[in-house]
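Q: Give me the 3D complex with magnesium ion.
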Amino acid sequence: MVIDGVTRPRAEQKSKEDKIMINMQAIEAAKEKFGKLLEQQLQRVEEMKGQGDFIDYKALDKIIIGVCGGDGIGPAITAQATRVLEYLLDKDIKSGRVEIRTIEGLTIERRAAENAAIPPAVLEEIKKCHVILKGPTTTPRKGDPWPNVESANVAMRKELDLFANVRPVRVPELGIDWTFFRENTEGAYALGSKGFNVTEDLGIDFTVTTTQGTERIIRAAFEYAKANGKTRVTAVTKANIIKTTDGKFLDIFREIAAEYPNITADDWYIDIMTAKLVDEKRRTEFQVFVLPNLYGDIITDEAAEFQGGVGTAGSANIGKRYAMFEAIHGSAPRMVQEGREKYADPCSVIRAGAMLLSHIGYTKEADKLYKALDICTVTERKLVITGRDTGATGEEFTNYLMETIEKL
Ligand code: IPM
Ligand code: MG
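A: Here is the predicted complex, encoded as structure tokens.
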């Protein structure tokens, strides 16, 4: 039997003393690994302590927008989103104030070949930009032909310290107007690929909550509420059971909430919260949510479903120096295998582009784009995308979208 690459005899064939010995060795080996993880996390805490304020895009002479196509339908749909950005930013691109830069190589083939979540040379290019628009990237699963590289999303969030995952969900006809602030670098994801089997029978994963990491996401949620006239911020945890890490998140939430007396702060447990989102009477009362990573991952898929599914949602990953905007759906490899990528719906990544525009200060352009998306996908719908040749291509739809913007 092989545990972490070491072949060991089967425990049941051993005497009691041998078993105790084997377990002790396993515990020692685990302690050493755990110690290394703690060192890295404490190092991260120190880095967070030294962090300055958010970058001020207005003060930059030039803003560089990097575009990573990703895998599957990613290149096809991000190409359409790029056209929209080029169209809306035309004047500032010509004047040199904005550059849109294509970044090649964030593909599963290259990531597999280099056995890296993000190939180092690609990461270097990404770090030369200010904001990134990213298409979906493949995360290998057991049974896939790829080595088990870490998710590119998760790696990029960590590498660029994109701690706030902001996911708006709006369904005006149902009275739903929610904004989720999902913590994006800690919780169950911080060491998601660093858990290990201590013995063949005992697997351990870790959840991480730091004071600095929690303060910054909770503050971001309250600041957003304050700036956008929201009157309520809701924390979601499972602090009754996950007492240390979720408990810390909730304590810090209460401390920071006290600094915002005009905003109602309440907290819910994740299980009942998932139920309340389908409670038609109660759900319209919620406005801004702040929550640890894994709960945020789960509940934002549920929330997006009311809006028409994850394919309709865009997602902003914001840090102090960098920000990345992405579609939250997958790379749909089957569409590519069947030669249907030109029929793939670019709306989610275009919506991510609208979030990018508003983040870097082009709010007028962003508003136009949101409006046009509403017209083209809800009220007018002159062209419909079906994902097949029964509907419009992404290019045709994007032409329609740009013509609609032109008329606004
Ligand atoms: C998301 C996705 C990612 C996540 C996956 C693709 C790693 O589900 O952005 O919500 O779990 O965060
Ligand atoms: Mg998810």
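A quick observation: Residues 16-49 form the longest helix (34 residues).
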